[in-house]
Design a protein that fits this description.
Elements lengths: L2 H13 L8 H12 L5 E6 L3 E7 L2 E11 L26 H17 L4 E9 L7 H7 L10 E8 L7 E3 L2 E4 L1 E10 L3 E2 L10 H14 L7 E10 L6 E2 L2 E10 L2 H21 L3 E10 L2 E3 L1 H13 L4 E3 L13 H4 L2 E7 L18 H17 L1
Parallel strand pairs: 3-4, 3-5, 5-16, 6-15
Antiparallel strand pairs: 1-2, 2-4, 6-16, 7-14, 8-12, 8-13, 9-11, 10-12
Helix pairs in contact: 1-3, 3-9, 5-6, 7-9
Length: 374
């Protein structure tokens, strides 16, 4: 397929975005594309709407996994174009349409020229944006059929020169989790607050104290308060319920897990002192994305052979990526692909994946395959 047709594919995906675990039409479009390539094996509905396409070499060798994401964001696409999102309130504003197209282009290369050895798994993962997709993929019993020796992924990065490869050994992107503390006391008439148990004092103390806990971590850790709620707008009632929501993030998984435990301990202590019941809820849990140093050398060599500009990121990115869970399952490598210094930032309403990156992404992924498996 000429590059122009891959660009048309990207635009068709952009036009019909689907959010986490709703990517049915997107998956059908990808399946239709790959059926014409005759992969050696196809797995559908992996971890929900996920897909895996397997291309085998003639000789034994390493099993390589290349992952992209199926899902879009629940954010309005504001950029006017002939391929603007047709789904109200949803848009491919993180570039997953481009990532999918790159993996489709890699599939074409493998169909025309299988690797000499080993296997290549092309994985289309659902629900990256919520942090639930990788977990669902790894929990699917069929994942054992394709359990990789190495896993690779890329992410386009606005703010970096077009086509530049952004590398890092060790932690590439932070782990994070959304956490909610729910406090339950007892309502009473607002004329007699002493007859109830109002969580207001506990909530105020937690708002003051919890952000300080992150400073106790050895490495980078951050606790960001995002929402607080107390009772309801009923002036005759003293509140009996309250909640506090926050995002916790760290560059080290142990630091993240330790911060979660510190928050729990503090919340329990404050709740007990106020005779409140406390519950904890977690959403959008992302593992730390850790890059294997051996794979760093492979990606670096391939990029150099292709004449691509390389830059070393001094500190990990503070944002999180669901690929982090794969780095706990096998040696893995996530790298950035510069999307232009003037490109709108990810998750902005005017963001649009640069089509110039498609060929670059295909070339570097194919280079990795040939470097490892010939």
């Amino acid at each position: 397929m000429p590059l122009s047709e891959l660009i048309d594919l990207r635009k068709s995906l952009h036009r019909q975005p689907e959010v986490a675990f709703e990517e049915h039409q997107t998956a059908e479009r990808i399946l239709e594309f790959f059926q014409a390539l005759n992969p050696d094996h196809i797995i559908t509905q992996l971890g929900g709407t996920g897909l895996a396409f397997i291309f085998k070499g003639e000789k034994p060798g390493k099993r390589l996994l290349f992952r992209c994401e199926l899902d879009a964001l629940p954010i309005e696409d504001l950029k006017k174009s002939p391929y603007q999102s047709q789904i109200l309130g949803k848009g491919h504003l993180c570039g997953h349409d481009g990532h999918m197209t790159i993996i489709c282009g890699l599939g074409e290369k493998l169909a025309a020229n299988r690797p000499e050895s080993g296997e290549v798994i092309l994985l289309f993962q659902p629900a990256e944006e919520t942090g639930d997709g990788a977990k669902a993929i790894l929990a699917d019993p069929r994942f054992k059929q394709i359990s990789p020796d190495f896993a690779f992924a890329l992410h386009n990065l606005p703010g970096y020169p077009m086509h530049q490869i952004v590398m890092r050994k060790g932690t590439f992107a932070a782990g994070s989790t959304g956490m909610t503390i729910s406090l339950t006391g007892k309502t009473s008439h607002s004329a007699h607050p002493e007859a109830g148990i109002n969580p207001a004092k506990a909530l105020a103390e937690l708002i003051q104290e919890l952000p300080r806990l992150a400073k106790q971590s050895k490495g980078f850790a951050l606790l960001t308060l995002i929402h607080a709620e107390l009772g309801s707008l009923a002036f005759g009632t003293s509140a009996g319920k309250g909640s506090l929501s926050m995002t916790l993030r760290a560059f080290d998984q142990q630091d993240l897990d330790g911060l979660i435990e510190k928050v729990k301990e503090k919340a329990l202590a404050v709740a007990n002192s106020e005779s409140l019941k406390v519950d904890f809820g977690f959403v959008e849990q992302f593992a730390v994305s850790v890059n294997d140093p051996t794979l760093y050398n492979i990606v670096e060599k391939v990029a150099q052979n292709l004449g691509l500009s390389l830059t070393e990121k001094q500190e990990p990115f503070r944002w999180s990526e669901d690929f982090g869970l794969f780095s706990q399952a096998c040696p893995a490598f996530l790298f950035g692909l510069g999307a232009g210094e003037d490109c709108p930032q990810l998750h902005e309403g005017t963001y649009d994946f640069p089509d110039e990156l498609i060929e670059t992404g295909v070339r570097i992924f194919e280079g990795i395959v040939r470097k490892v498996n010939g």
